[in-house]
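tokens incoming
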């Protein structure tokens, strides 16, 4: 069975070919559809073999699962010198994700409590960028 590639698929492929690291949400905004729609389209293009070599394995020292629908107090209950904000989450500098303990960064549900995945992803990206800066200056 031949697979049809429509105008949206072509636009997605064009954007990805120009920048393979472009965030799905940026593609979604440009295409005027949801991020989930872009994810589904890209997955379809992978499944039918239009996009190849997009899967890879990365060796890591640790994996942190970040799933939750309510404030998780495990981190601040078990980590010394971490201040708590007025909502019961970890106190951070919003612009950087830095906590009150040097070298420790936080974001998402651990800081804000239950919120959207988009906000958590944004906080994670902010923290990751600032962790990199922190480590580069060590």
């Amino acid at each position: 069975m031949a697979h049809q590639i429509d105008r949206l698929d072509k636009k997605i492929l064009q954007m990805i070919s120009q920048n393979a690291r472009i965030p799905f949400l940026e593609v979604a905004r440009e295409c005027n559809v949801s991020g989930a729609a872009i994810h589904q389209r890209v997955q379809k293009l992978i499944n039918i073999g239009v996009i190849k070599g997009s899967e890879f394995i990365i060796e890591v020292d640790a994996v942190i699962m970040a799933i939750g629908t309510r404030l998780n107090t495990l981190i601040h209950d078990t980590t010394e010198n971490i201040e708590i904000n007025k909502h019961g989450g970890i106190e951070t500098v919003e612009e950087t994700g830095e906590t009150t303990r040097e070298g420790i960064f936080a974001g998402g549900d651990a800081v804000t409590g239950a919120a959207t995945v988009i906000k958590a992803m944004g906080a994670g990206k902010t923290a990751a960028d600032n962790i990199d800066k922190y480590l580069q200056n060590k």
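note: The chain has a mean pLDDT of 83.
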